[in-house]
Structure prediction request, 230 residues.
Amino acid sequence: MPMKNMRILLVEDTHDVGEAIAKRFEAIGHAVDWETDGRAAAEIIDFTEYSLIILDVMLPGMDGFEILKRLRKSGNAVPVLVLTARSEIEDRVGALDLGADDYLVKPFDFRELEARARVLIRRRTGGEATNLIKCGDIAIDRGARSVHVGKREVQLKRRELTLLEVMAARPGRVFSKDELLDQIFGFDEAANANAIELYVGRLRKKLEGAQARIVTVRGLGYQLVPGDAA
Prediction:
């Protein structure tokens, strides 16, 4: 389904990447403001309303994290999709903690970029930006690093929490084991697909009784699905 025409702010200082993204969205009817300097982008955000911001992390003038921090501190709930380098695992965790709605790892497929933009626009309700992620009766407070199932607090270890955050931020999306490995382990840490099975098994036990469940999609991976627990 095509997106309704909207105004997008693209903040990307790599010229060929920025040009390609801008042309792609303009070709399907969207207005794109493209900025290469972080400080200039932050000033524009102060007086211009956007439907979506596509934000690189490494920028001259002001980095993407600082822009995101300013944006959320001001109460601006515009959806933000962060672009990050594959080797910078901490960028992804940091972006989600600061209030990013999604992230995309470079290099990426433009079809996926468009799809994620569609999801963010559909999801937008105009509510206040928050660090709270909810799926069924599972609530994750990214600021406090805490998890509740209904009124019950669930104690999760760091990697268990990261795994749950990744899946709960995009309920229904199927994540392959390789994707999940890439997101919860650094490249200097020895791990394989069996580690993901282990963490998924632990999460299932700790979330037992929740109104959301981790489903195995045979041959593809895992997804977190809202609804009554099986």
About this structure: The chain has two domains: 7-123, 132-226. DSSP finds eight helices and eleven strands in the chain. Residues 125-129 have pLDDT under 50 and may be disordered.
